[in-house]
Each structure stands twice: as structure tokens, then as C-alpha cells.
UniProtKB/TrEMBL annotation:
The gene is ngcE. PROSITE patterns: PROKAR_LIPOPROTEIN, TAT. SUPFAM superfamilies: Periplasmic binding protein-like II (SSF53850). Belongs to the bacterial solute-binding protein 1 family. One of its GO terms (cellular component) is cell envelope. Its main location: other. This is N-acetylglucosamine/diacetylchitobiose ABC transporter substrate-binding protein. Residues 30-50 are annotated as: Disordered. PANTHER family: ARABINOSE-BINDING PROTEIN-RELATED (PTHR43649), SN-GLYCEROL-3-PHOSPHATE-BINDING PERIPLASMIC PROTEIN UGPB (PTHR43649:SF31). It comes from Streptomyces tardus.
Length: 471
């Protein structure tokens, strides 16, 4: 019991000292402690082999889904599976997760499951410090839906559980999708230029130069959401300098951003701008607009995650030949091989601690981790899940086939940066903003490095001694 208190206290001290929450979020969270009324919670059901989490079979359930790249049909399909054994599910979809959900958390009347994703993703570390998020360990220790002899935790891909931990053994975020990040492109587009995907930066510049002569930009990206650049930039930094560079950045170590690998990576990406290889107007467009321009063949390369195939299905031509490859390396001096990628469990779900039906929320997630729902998710949205082997034998779309092959080729050369979830505002707004300004040509790579380090140093001071760290 003492260990549990110490872990929770550590999280509270860390987040309270952090001061990294978005202004609107901070104002709302500050009065959230103590909200909610336990008497409003539904009574537990009777525990059985079919109901290991003691769900009240007559109680309703409320689920809120982020309506982004994955849509929400996979969730409504899971509702039907849940309702075979339990109560009706009230469904809501929105892109305004923070705007819609934060007030409900403050009032102590949140839904039972929240898909905490998207541009308005809530800072889960701050919510944990306010005792607003349920520990999902009971779910992980419950028998899996398809094989009662296996616990849920034993059916998950490596790294899934760790991704939801914040300073202890408790798991507060459950990341359902298994996302592979990389540089997306059209196979026919490269074939038309008579080039192969570039493995070194000199080759990348040569391909972009050839495309420019044909009136095609080398790159486009989500200028309004510059953290998308991290999907290729972070693994690029790791390739150049090794995985410890990323760990130092995650740990907010002094001078981590001043590492030579970061400087080289920034200089390389800035060269795309300097040579005119970035699609005109890119700094002012969002992810949907950049993807649409890419689908129209106006740019060769796009930094993104494996949700992009589903998100662009309305604009992708039938003969587009979507594919993905690891970040292009720098040269033969790289510390890690070309096959190195960033891949991880993503698309986080949480069960609010003050929810009326916490047991039902966990059971809904258990349903999602069953083979039926996992395969349905992959079929509907062209994305892998965190469930081991769920996609085996399935007929995958071209982009997902490429992503799956890239993941297998990486082997153990997979990095999982934690800055995006340990320090969400720093990652998205501060670091992302400095990179965006550099890519727009407004500051030099050296100035971008300087700004990134300054932002990280301020975050480190705010976090104090209890900030999250790699061991």
C-alpha cells in the first residue's frame, strides 16, 4: 500500500511542478480535485468467467471517440459486441476532446471511456495528478476475451503497457493502435521519375532536385501542426547519433538539443527549404490539406503515421500506390541502420476515475482487444492494433502492407520517443514551433537548436527533481 501512495505522490509532485499544461487546461484542472460523487457510481456486477471485471449488466455505458484519422465506425461496431452481454452504449464523436471533456472532468461527471487523442488531446499527466484517471491494471490482469488462459497483458505487443505508464507501474492510458511512422510516398510517382526511395541525404536531395525539374515539390507537411515533422525527424536524429540522443531529449537533459546529431538533422531538413524543395504554401496548411496536395501528386514525400491511408481514402487516387519507408539517413557514418523507425502503441484511451461505470469502461476496452474488434479495426481504418498477431492472414491495403513490412524489417531498431506524452505542450507547441519557424525560413538551424534547448531547459526547471526519465 505504501508503494502505491509513493507512486501516486510522485506523479502529483511531478505534474504539479510541471507548469506545462495549456492555459485553458490549467485553469480548468486547477479546480478539479475532489470533483465527482462516488454515490453516483453504478453498483458492481457479479464476478464470473464471462464477467471478470464485475460489470453491472444492466448499467449503461458512455464512450467518447476522437473523430480523426480513424473515424468512429470501429467503436460503434465494438459497442454491438459489448451490448451482447451488457447494457446500452451511448456514443459521442468529436474532434474537440479537451473542449468537450475537460469541463466534464472538472464537474466530476465524465463519460466512462474517452479516446484522448488529436490536436486537443488532454495532458494526461496533469489529470493523473488530480486523481482523475483510473488505473487500468485490473483490465490488464483480466483474462483475454478469446483465450481465458491468457491475461490481457499477455496478448499485447511489446511496449504497449509501458507507453501508458507515468512514473510507476500503474497504467493510465491504453494505446490501442500500433502506429508506424515514416516518410510516405507514391510508388508510381517515384517510378515515373525513375528513382528509388533515397537512403542517404545526398540521395534525397538528388531525388527532390529531379522532381523540381518536373514541377513537383519534394516535400509537404502539416504546417499548422509542425509536430508532424517529428515523425521523421526524431528517428533521423537517432540514426545519426544513436538512441541515447533521443533518451537525453526525453529526459530534458542539459544540452541534449545541442548534440551534433540534432544540428546535422536540422541542417539537413533546412536544406529542403533552402533549395526550394518544399511545396509552396506548406507552412500555412493543416494535415488534411497537406495530405490532399500529396495525393494530387504535387509533392513526393509526406511525414506521417500509418493512420494516413484511412484519413486520405477519399482523396487518394486508385492507382496512387501508397507506400512508406524509414526516415532517410544522413550517410554511412550513421550510428543506426537505415531500417530504424519510430513505431509504438498509440491512439490513447482512458477511463476517468470519476466515471459512473468504471468497470464497464474497462470491459469495453477488453472487447476492443478481442480478435473480432481488433481485426475489424484493421479492416476499417487500415491500421494495426497493439494485439499480437491480430492482422495475421488479413488482406491489408497497400500502405499498411508497406508499414507492416517496414516494422518487421526494423527488428530491434525501433525508437519510442517519450517527449510527446511526457511533455505534450513542449513537444507540440514549443519544439514543433521552433522547427516550423526554421522550415518556413524565418530562423536558421542554429537558432532553432538554441530555441529548442531553451524551451527544454525551462521545462526541466518547471518539472523539478521528479520529472519523468528513462532509467
Amino acid at each position: 500500500m505504501g508503494t502505491e501512495v509513493n507512486r501516486r505522490d510522485l506523479i502529483k509532485r511531478s505534474a504539479a511542478a510541471g507548469a506545462l499544461a495549456l492555459p485553458a487546461m490549467g485553469a480548468l484542472s486547477s479546480c478539479a480535485t475532489g470533483g465527482g460523487n462516488d454515490s453516483e457510481k453504478v453498483e458492481k456486477g457479479e464476478k464470473s468467467a464471462k464477467n471478470p471485471l464485475e460489470v453491472n449488466e444492466k448499467a449503461g455505458l458512455s464512450v467518447v471517440i476522437f473523430n480523426g484519422g480513424y473515424g468512429d465506425e470501429y467503436a460503434t461496431d465494438a459497442h454491438k459486441v459489448y451490448e451482447r452481454s451488457f447494457g446500452k452504449v451511448k456514443h459521442e464523436r468529436t474532434q474537440k476532446i479537451r473542449t468537450r471533456m475537460q469541463p466534464l472532468l472538472v464537474k466530476g461527471n465524465p463519460p466512462d471511456v474517452i479516446n484522448n487523442s488529436g490536436a486537443e488531446q488532454m495532458d494526461v499527466a496533469s489529470l493523473i495528478s488530480k486523481d482523475q484517471v483510473a488505473d487500468l491494471t485490473p483490465l490488464l490482469d483480466a483474462p483475454s476475451l478469446d483465450d481465458p488462459d491468457k491475461k490481457v497483458r499477455d496478448t499485447l505487443l511489446p511496449g504497449t503497457i509501458e507507453k501508458g505508464q507515468f512514473g510507476g507501474e500503474e497504467v493510465y492510458h491504453f494505446n490501442y493502435s500500433y502506429t508506424v511512422y515514416g516518410t510516405w510516398y507514391s510508388k508510381p510517382a517515384l517510378e515515373k521519375l525513375e528513382v528509388e526511395y533515397p537512403k542517404t541525404w545526398d540521395e534525397m536531395l538528388a531525388v527532390c532536385a529531379k522532381a523540381k525539374k518536373e514541377g513537383i515539390a519534394g516535400w509537404t507537411y502539416a504546417g499548422k501542426h509542425p509536430y508532424y515533422f517529428a515523425f521523421t525527424l526524431y528517428p533521423f536524429i537517432a540514426k545519426i547519433g544513436g538512441p541515447d540522443v533521443i533518451k537525453a531529449i526525453d529526459n530534458l537533459e542539459p544540452n541534449a538539443w545541442r548534440h551534433d546529431a540534432v544540428k546535422k538533422a536540422f541542417e539537413a531538413y533546412h536544406e529542403l527549404y533552402a533549395k526550394g524543395y518544399v511545396l509552396k504554401g506548406t507552412p500555412g496548411i493543416d494535415h488534411i490539406q497537406s495530405q490532399t496536395q500529396w495525393n494530387k501528386g504535387r509533392a513526393l514525400f509526406l511525414p506521417n503515421g500509418s493512420w494516413v491511408e484511412n484519413e486520405t481514402k477519399k482523396t487518394t487516387p486508385k492507382e496512387f500506390g501508397m507506400a512508406v519507408a524509414p526516415s532517410t539517413g544522413l550517410d554511412k557514418s550513421d550510428a543506426m541502420p537505415f531500417e530504424t523507425i519510430w513505431a509504438e502503441a498509440s491512439e490513447p484511451f482512458m477511463v476517468p476515475a470519476q466515471a459512473k461505470n468504471v468497470q464497464g469502461g474497462m470491459e469495453w476496452l477488453r472487447v476492443m482487444l478481442g480478435k473480432e474488434s481488433a481485426q475489424n479495426f484493421t479492416k476499417l481504418v487500415s491500421a494495426l492494433t497493439c494485439v499480437k498477431g491480430a492482422a495475421d492472414g488479413m488482406d491489408l491495403m497497400p500502405g499498411l502492407t508497406a508499414a507492416n513490412g517496414m516494422h518487421k524489417a526494423a527488428g530491434e531498431n525501433i525508437i519510442v520517443p517519450r517527449l510527446p506524452d511526457w511533455h505534450i505542450e513542449l513537444h507540440k507547441d514549443r519544439i514543433g514551433g521552433a522547427i516550423a519557424t526554421m522550415m518556413a525560413g524565418d530562423i536558421s538551424p542554429a537558432e532553432a537548436v538554441k530555441q529548442c534547448q531553451q524551451h527544454a531547459d525551462r521545462a526541466a526547471k518547471a518539472d523539478g527533481a521528479d520529472k519523468y526519465k528513462h532509467a
